[in-house]
């Protein structure tokens, strides 16, 4: 019995401008038709004995996470909401305590939601070997057999081999040492020695075993997480851990807190085309390339361009004479960088954050619990948005003090409350909401409702709203 624990927090700022604070890389479609989170869940769905996943995510991303699971017909055992980030050790601790609270003691398969694994079969073989040793109360970390002298990863040095009868496809090794990210010369030596693996950040261990190790090595984390769970509460499809209790929890990684200290650790190496997709260079490395070595997404026109990554999000992207470059276009930002300088993207993001620029927080299209709203035109006196509402969904009953709203239905049926009035709008019909009038929008139909919303007035800030009733806020 294996309970997958998917770590879906984080922002992935090195993949800006695609990745934003409210739309991080694990929720993006970067390598195929599914998002990174969806791929992570689907990769393990059919492994024998796998239970429904536990997802741990930022509170701000909760509805996007739930919707992405719904789209692939996956129902999570629980979606735990972290009110603040505290690194991976507290996240794993929450999942372990939650798992044993029901009287069970499953193996916990801890997976970051933003990893790319090309060969699922090879990963499953490593998982089978890991489960064998985790059932004997070893704490397993997955090591990636290095393919190059990578300086961006931590390494693990193999100790003695552990014997496992009937599991010839993978070996397990004692952990001799965790090693920090090396310089280029040291990384070359690690690669040649064959004694080192990349530290993947993926783990498998019994829930009670990791709780025991936390009690031994980081009791303050265990105590804070237990308190946060006991004071937490269910909220729709989510579980909210107590904010005040969780804020007292120290921030630490599972590597530092447990794996580097335990005498029960072991590593299972495997090679399956793994990458943590931590930069645009990584996406070029793993992407399907054309005859000139280019990775291309979207509407892209090229002439004499080689070994580059080009991503068009909303319009035609045309390039001439580029080599070894990254070009990423979105509706509100364009990034251009040599491939050798992509690590410096975080410098730009920090400068944008310091200037309080909206481009670090969200895209023009924002996802809501009821659907989405995309800004098409923004001016001083008016804003035009395309709004989509899922079947059966409800936008909160609200009022605005400074702005009026005009709604024009493009597709579907809208049930509109205007003060005490209830009206039904169908395609090509519209309504007007003056400032100060309470209103609400419902999609009573079986297809998505699409409409154009025109906001006009003296002040159009998002804070000009009073929510009178909201089914999504508890």
Structure, explained:
It is a single chain. The protein is of the alpha+beta class and 474 residues long. Helices cover 23% and strands 34% of the residues. The strands form six sheets. A six-stranded antiparallel sheet has the order 20-21-22-29-24-27, with no helix packed on it. Helix 3 crosses helix 7. The longest helix is centred in the first third of the chain and has 15 residues. It starts with a strand and ends in a 5-residue tail after the last strand.
Annotate the secondary structure layout.
Blueprint (H helix, E strand, L loop, with lengths): L1 E6 L28 H9 L9 E5 L3 H10 L6 E5 L5 H13 L6 E6 L3 E2 L2 H15 L4 E6 L10 E8 L9 E8 L4 H10 L2 E11 H11 L1 H12 L2 E3 L2 E3 L2 H5 L6 H6 L5 E6 L3 E2 L4 H7 L8 E3 L2 E4 L5 E4 L4 E4 L4 E5 L4 E5 L6 H10 L10 E4 L2 E8 L3 E8 L4 E6 L3 E9 L2 E5 L2 E5 L4 E4 L5 E4 L6 E9 L8 E4 L5
Parallel strand pairs: 1-2, 1-4, 2-3, 3-11, 6-12, 14-16, 15-17, 16-18
Antiparallel strand pairs: 4-9, 5-13, 6-9, 7-8, 7-9, 8-12, 10-11, 18-19, 20-21, 21-22, 22-29, 23-28, 23-30, 24-27, 24-29, 25-26, 25-28
Helix pairs in contact: 3-6, 3-7, 6-7
